[in-house]
Write a structure and sequence with these properties.
The chain has one domain (15-69). 8% of the residues lie in helices and 40% in strands. The chain is built from 1 helix and 5 strands. It has a 5-stranded antiparallel sheet with strand order 4-3-2-1-5. It starts with 14 loop residues before the first strand and ends in a 6-residue tail after the last strand.
Amino acid sequence: MATPRTRTQPKPGEIWLSCPPYLLIAEVLAVDTKRNPSVVSYELHDENGFPLERANAALDDGWWQAFQPLIRRHG
């Protein structure tokens, strides 16, 4: 039996990383789940943390192909 595909929903304040070949950082500002598809607002930063632009994107397959959540590991 195939396992269902689950995706982490972005939340305000989270940091997401762009998928290779780019190294960009997206700080999630807001998520509007009342729209269809949902919309994520984020601020894009370069690899040094310098802010580049603010943008909105549909929370669809394109989002998960472009970004992955930053998983912080301690220890």
